[in-house]
UniProtKB/TrEMBL annotation:
Domain DUF4424, chain residue ranges per copy: 24-311
InterPro entries, sorted: DUF4424
Keyword terms: Signal
Natural source organism: Caulobacter flavus
Annotated transmembrane regions: none
Span of the signal peptide: 1-24
Entry protein name: DUF4424 domain-containing protein
Length: 318
């Protein structure tokens, strides 16, 4: 593949990254994940959120306070990114952990103690919940694993025809249902006493072998990630054609932080680009460099209205 073709692929994948998967040569797309989800409540406020994002780790520390005057028990959830669907190809999507139910290696602690969460998995084909059909026919729900393909293809012809009709199987792609996985647990928020909730996981990082930044194909990517003139100039100094860098993307869902009773009291984001020679860009005001690889954003009494998209350019090793 020529460098020109790679740059076209980089531009295409960056434009499609928010869809969860993309078809492009020598590239992979990220799966957007984020923070805790709770049905909107007037009882619990998020006093602070301390969020760290790097290519290898996402860590979040929340402080919650029940302001209602009495103990409240709520269902708290962490939704995994959806996997699968028509046009989903494993070779094009970054899945960091080979676990059928926990592709991001998600863990949670409450006041320093591990929480054993429940797992809910549902499979949708043709827009309908087909979990029961798959379970009844002994098909693993993990659409991204080879076991699902083998089990489907071992079905009798009549059953395989039924799977096609239900939107679960395509002869060219194999399994095409959408797997939705949610970790959830029942959490009591004591009246008037803050509790600390921490979770961590490995992010899904999309990538391609060159960057379109600074080239004729890069305008959409530059706008999506708020790339400034300094980053464009740095890419051009390194060669000008984008081939000196690997382009990577990390998406993080922020807007779920608006489900709590009040704006986030004290929000802190640290984005770590991994190595001093790497370049990073994301859309935010008041970004402050706090170390050779780390950049900080702080907000007070804030409700996020947009999700976070991070562009990382990693230098090719000489």
């Amino acid at each position: 593949m020529t460098l020109r073709s790679l740059l076209r692929s980089a531009a295409l994948v960056a434009a499609l990254a928010c869809a969860g998967s993309a078809m492009a040569n020598d590239s992979s797309a990220e799966l957007a994940a984020g923070g805790l989800v709770l049905t909107k409540t007037a009882a619990v406020a998020m006093r602070s959120e301390d969020l760290y994002i790097s290519p290898t780790a996402v860590r979040v520390r929340y402080v919650f306070e029940n302001t209602s005057g009495k103990d409240v028990t709520l269902r708290v959830a962490f939704p995994m990114p959806d996997i699968g669907g028509d046009g989903f190809f494993m070779s094009d999507v970054s899945i960091p952990i080979d676990d059928p139910a926990n592709i991001l290696g998600f863990t949670t602690k409450i006041d320093g103690k591990p929480v054993k969460a429940q797992i809910e998995q549902k499979a949708f084909g043709g827009g309908q919940d087909r979990t029961g059909w798959l379970v009844a026919n002994r098909i693993p729900l993990a659409v991204h694993q080879e076991a699902a393909t083998k089990a489907l293809e071992a079905l009798p012809p009549a059953k395989l025809k039924e799977a096609r009709a239900l939107g679960l199987y395509d002869e060219d792609q194999g399994p095409i249902w959408v797997l939705k996985t949610t970790y959830h647990w029942s959490q009591t928020f004591p009246a008037g006493r803050p509790i600390i909730v921490e979770h961590a996981y490995t992010p899904s990082v999309g990538a391609t072998v060159a960057t379109s930044i600074g080239t004729e194909y890069g305008a959409e990517t530059q706008a999506r990630y708020c790339v400034d003139a300094g980053m464009v100039a740095a890419v051009k100094r390194a060669g000008g054609d984008g081939g000196a860098y690997v382009e990577k993307w990390i998406d993080y869902v922020l807007v779920t932080g608006g489900n709590w009773s009040e704006p986030i009291g004290d929000f802190r984001l640290v984005v770590d680009k991994g190595a001093p020679r790497n370049l990073v860009s994301f859309c935010a005001d008041g970004v402050k460099k706090i170390g050779p690889t780390q950049f900080e954003v702080r907000r007070k009494n804030w409700r996020p209205e947009e999700d976070l998209r991070i562009l990382l350019l990693e230098r090719h090793e000489p």
